[in-house]
Amino acid sequence: MEKVLKVENIWKSYGKLQVLKGISFDINEGETKVIFGPSGSGKSTLLRCINMLDPPDKGKVYIRGVDITDPSVDLNKVRTRIGMVFQHFNLFNHLTALDNVALGLRVVKKMPKEEARKKAMEALKKVRMEKWSHHYPGQLSGGQKQRVGIARALAMEPDIILFDEPTSALDPELIGEVLNVMLDLAKEKTTMLVVTHEMGFARSVASEMIFIDNGVVVERGTPEHFFTKPKTERVRRFLSKIGELYGRKGKTAPEG
Description:
Blueprint: E1 3-14, E2 17-28, E3 32-36, H1 43-50, E4 58-63, E5 66-67, H2 75-79, E6 82-85, H3 97-107, H4 113-126, H5 142-155, E7 160-164, H6 172-187, E8 192-195, H7 199-205, E9 208-213, E10 216-221, H8 223-228, H9 233-246
Parallel strand pairs: 3-8, 3-9, 6-7, 7-8
Antiparallel strand pairs: 1-2, 1-4, 4-5, 9-10
């Protein structure tokens, strides 16, 4: 199985604050890996280092064997290979859902307008948003906006998609529609790295879960490992709190 992403000894600080302290892991083709941990543990910073929005101070990031931290690498070209789904959608309010998805294809991939719109519509269908393709973001719910954000990432046909807590800005009743789309993508073997607190989703699809706290990997393993016999007291405490928050431990994602 081909290795899509390799993260090697990543360090990142802001002034005197050391946020990441030597994080390493890798992801193979078709895997979904879930990163979880408390707020402020460095999860979002890690994603920003991986897609080079915020380059690491030390360490390497490889996409299919290419070191994208190498100064000679064309970062604009690299970023077309890494999809990103943000917490807060980051859609252009003056563009329809279809044009939001098509924009990257036209600007970055230099695709002709009609070809880009056709490909964008295919991506919207994958996230069940084709009926809203001509709506503007202001006319969409938070869940619909996030599905457009996922379609935008899919349309670029990246090697991997990074999700930064994609349901954290949503009302509870809208979370399921986004998680269902992500469950479908996982079943289709889309390579994904997901930062989330949605333990039901993680339990359903993660090939590995990685618990991060204070900028280091505290524990890693399968969902079965974490939900039956986590090794560290820190992880047990965290999962207990998550269980209390949602009322039933490990069941925050929709069934099926």
